[in-house]
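Quick one, T. Sequence first:
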Amino acid sequence: MTALALVRPPELSLRWLSVWRRNLLVWRKLAIASVLGNIADPLLYMLALGYGIGAFVPEVNGMKYIAFIGTGMVCQSAMFTASFEGMYSAFSRMHVQRTWEAIINAPVALDDVMLAEWMWCATKALMSTIAILIVLLALGFGHTPLALWILPLGFLVGLTFGAFGLVMNALAPGYDFFTYFFTLVLTPQLLMSGVYFPVDQMPAWLQVAANALPLKHAIDLARPLMLGRVPDGIVLHVVVLAVYAVAGYWLATALTRRRLLK
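Structure tokens:
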């Protein structure tokens, strides 16, 4: 393929909806196992750390510690769910099952498949966001209409990290390759974005690094919403997440074209 073909913008059409629906129908057959797999870990961490450490740290930034960590877990769960879908599940459909190859032999372009996969990553992230938000509501937190804005935030986080996952999928020779992403990208996001403790307690140079992380911007939106407050800097946070998402999706599409359309 020519360099121009690799960098041209993704071509959008409504045909992606059929591919997205196909993923939904397949997911429905394994929905219970999928939901448990995506939300069990963050829920266990939230409950164990929230009540365990919460016994020693009653409040953080004006919130009970379980609400503080729970808000971080909402965003973390969306991040991990979308990343997993963009890597392991997409790699299975692309390389192992060769589902993408079959689809693009129909009147559906590879760009349609990529858009569908990107949106499916965000859809799965939204499902995880809903599940954990329901648990937080059941525990007595987030009883404010503003908390509902965490749902579209979860979808946006899914777009961001789903795009990152699809970039790794386009580069991966096998499943083991994804370990790099978990170690070098997701773990720093988890530890430096304010999931477990306030970022403003870290050294100044680490705070600067944390402010470049997309998960940090998501959490800065989610926590005030959980308290019923309008977040500061909404436009900045949304723009940062959107730029990461669109740039990642564009790159993933270009790399996937290079890999599959030789």
